[in-house]
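Example (one chain per record):
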Amino acid sequence: MRKILWFTLGFGAACAFCAYGKSPVLLTVPALVLLVAFFAGKKRMYPILLTLFGIAAGAVWFSRFEARTLLPVYALDGITQDAAIRCTGFPEETDYGCRGEGVIRIGEKDYRVVCYLDEGNGIQPGSVLSGSFLFRVTSPGGLKESTYYQGEGIFLLAYQRDELALVSSPRTLRDIPAILRQQILDTLGNLLPADVSPFAKALLVGDSSDLDYETVTDFTASGIRHIVAVSGLHVSILFSLLSVFSFRRRFLSALLAFPTLLLFAAVTGFTPSVCRACMMCGLMLLAMLLNREYDGITALSFAGLVLLLVNPLVIVSVSYQLSFASVAGIFLFAPGIRKWILSLLDRKKANRLQWGLVRWFTLSVSVTLGATTATAPLCAYYFGTVSLAAVLTNLLVLWAVSLIFYGLMGVCLMAVLSQGLAAVLGKTVAVLIRYVLLTAKIIADFPLAAVYTRSPYIVAWLVFAYLLLGIFLLARNRHPVRLFCCTVLGLCFALLASWSEPLLDQTRFTVLDVGQGQCLLLQSEGKNFLVDCGGSSDAQAADAAAETLLSQGISRLDCLIVTHYDRDHAGGISGLLSRVDTELLILPPVFSEETYSAQRKVYASGNLVLSTGETEIRVFASEIPGKDNENSFCILFDTKNCDILITGDRDAFGERSLLRNAHIPDVDVLVAGHHGSKNATCEELLAAVQPEIVCISAGRNNSFGHPSPEVLKRLEARGCAVYRTDLQGDIFIRR
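Predicted structure:
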């Protein structure tokens, strides 16, 4: 009996319960039940008993971790004070300034911290930064936005507040992985062509910062996003290479593997997925050395427990969840899938070579299906996507990924001896990388390569599919064909509902939840119009807009209007246009540095009127010189069933100017100006347009305090129905 499995499940459940904001005190009841059940002494109850024991232990451990590790950090939240931070890596330029990682001493304990600096000149591993910093904790509670930092054991952010003193200190052994990582990145950047080096960096050491948005979305849709996130796949490839060099001798394998895997984990940043894979490989080697049977489920449970003991908040990490879910899916589902596929084939009709290829094919298919089955709900939640083409794509590219990984290692090693030979090898590897990139792009462009969970019908289909899977696993007489047919039939109904629903409404207005930004979708008379595409991050806004459209079977916008070029309104446009075609793009007269692709572009310096059927779009250009916000377009959608007014980021002065220079009728829906800023959505505007509904697009817990209490009071006094993306998420209005 796999005792550690049940204990780990309980321990992880308790950590998740506490990490997502629940009090550990609530878990005392299972502990009491444990004691009663334990003294009952029934052997069949052991799995339940061990799970309950794990729950009790997890609750106690999390409480201890919170008191000893988290509380000292949370006490610094919002405080500006002098501190000394020892850098553990090289800084990198981001959209929010120079970013670096370091270690800070709080009490008697060292804590990892992410620093945002004005510049990174001269900063290296071992450098000590002394000066004033504003400290912020990474958001507690297991929110999606904070899972990366918390899962990595980073609970503190530091923002430079004045000039810093830079002091060099002697380098130690813990600085070697960061230096080696940077040397690898520099080598790949210098010796590989520019179009393939970002992929190479992501594959070899997990640095995906240079990957463009289009590549990431192609990988997500085609089901191979895991190859650019260093994980168990990469560890298994490395382990296979080490096995070959050790001639499969147990002692030599262990001698090579243990230090190599440790170094690889350190270079890649000790991510949860890599740590899990390295520990499982280490346990496999240990079992071989001790002549003991290796059990994958037990090894997986042990690795999961160790990571939870080190940092209970690793349970909220996407990397941790996906890594363990995929391996568990392989162990649980892959053998049965492979056995069923092989049962359909006739061994007698195939020669040795053919049967070897069949076995390889069935192994690849079963492993991919097993991992996909277990991770699909997580991918749906975190990425909004479920790839239907994952099996095909993995079959086509995984063999190349292994060769690329070995080739990149060869480039880095050869560069020490000869830059010229390394460059030649790099060009050869580049051919394989381009093959992977092209394959992902081609498959991602297939009509049904992926489905998107922005459609509630796709979510319902997922629930339906996993209920069927549960019934299938519990049934005595299992019929895989029936399971497959019912799942496909359910998907067909879900797609039909998703694609037909917009056609049932004359007018459909959607305020997309993009964080602190704005993205508005109007659908009327079979036409699709989008206003702005920007948010808390460029990718978030582009994903929200593209996936909303693609989930409805729409791959083309009739018109996209940009109110102004601020990033929270226009940052995601390039990403959106890489996934969705646009017939007409209307832009402000001030040219942006970005070059947008569209069938037709119009830079509007004056008012515009567009008509299609009974829908009329009026674009009001600003006549006020000044800052970008005041130059925002205002847009009036006049449809058969409702009128919608959008004022961009104009403040009260700009709104009054609009009322003076244009005739604005009463409207049904008003999008509050500047995300609910106190200086917008003035009394004069509200009195003139008399909106029934006011929508506010603002990010959760944004630093600007949007929407302001003053605006909310004005809207309440007018009797308007108020809907907010920071509270309700996506807002749907149907007429």
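Caption: Residues 456-500 form one domain.
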